[in-house]
Amino acid sequence: MPKYELTDTRHPNIPELRQIRALQDIPLVGVYRGERGGYVKSTRNLSQVGNCWIDSSSIARGNSRVRGNARVSNSSRIEDNAIVEDSARVSRSTVYGNAVVSNCAKLSYGMTMGDHASIGDRASAAGESYLLGHAKLTGNSYIEGSGTVVSGNTELSGDAFVRGIVFIVGNVKISDHASVIDDARIDGTDVQISGHAYVAGKAVITGEVKILGSSKVRGSSWVSGNAVIDGTTVVEGDAWVGGTAHVFGSSRVYRCSRVMSGDVEDRQVMDEWLGVGDDDAYFSLTPTEPHALV
């Protein structure tokens, strides 16, 4: 027996969509026979199998699919070729393009997810932010904030999280317990942030940087090139670490320091310029100019 039927009631703003009505009880989602749900273009949008449901304030249209035990609620929109499946939850959010929400993942509080982005496992995303491109969230990772953009080929996994007004694009992998918060910006060709590392403040990360261990990059600092930050290192202030520099141990690079090559271990670097030659292009820049390049 079908789970629901299409009624003759049309959506007030999108007349091609018709409201659904339950033909049987669905106790798992608190829906009972005769109760009306959301609006769909056709029965292809909401599976007749499983406990999936779209509430009366939400829509599914185009070639989108809601299936399994998924739930769509609180004025959410599922459009284009988007898929919401398994035990996923979408609340007050929009999913479009070829985006996929699966497993026990959750979208809520104004999220917009599109293109080929995917979120699965127990990952979650909340707030008026954007998950776009081929971005992928797995594990227990999460996004939280207002105005955050996670795009490109960004991958969040493990217990990693992004929070604040963060911008991430390019090939970026954030894993383990790592975090990117505040107004940080990452635009890299192969950036890796792992362990308990975090990027905060107005920090900018570009290139093929690795930020590992329990290191911290914060303030208005900039890390670029093939630099590696490891250990319990702190890069802060207006410091700039780039080139082939490897800063590790319990080092601290701060104020207006520049480190462009070599190993820096267990050292305090304040207002020093290391690995910068007279003919180096970096040498002509003032401490605040790197951010003008991004």
- Oligomer state equals single chain
**Poorly predicted tracts of residues:** 278-294
By CATH reckoning, the class of the largest domain would read Mainly Beta
Tally of domains: 2
Structural class: mainly beta
Strand content: 35-45%
Helix content: under 10%
Write the CATH fold name of the largest domain: UDP N-Acetylglucosamine Acyltransferase, domain 1
Biggest beta sheet summary? 26 strands, mixed
Mean pLDDT reading: 93
The total of helices stands at: 0
Write down the Rg: 23 Å
CATH architecture of the largest domain: 3 Solenoid
CATH superfamily of the largest domain: Hexapeptide repeat proteins
Beta strands, count: 39
Principal-axes shape call = elongated
Distance between the termini: 58 Å
Brief account:
The chain is 0% helix and 40% strand.
Description:
- By secondary structure, this protein is mainly β.
- It has 2 domains: 1-128; 166-294, Hexapeptide repeat proteins (UDP N-Acetylglucosamine Acyltransferase, domain 1).
- It has no helices and 39 strands.
- The strands form 2 sheets. It has a 26-stranded mixed β-sheet that branches. A 13-stranded parallel β-sheet has the order 4-7-10-13-16-19-22-24-26-29-32-35-38, with no helix packed on it.
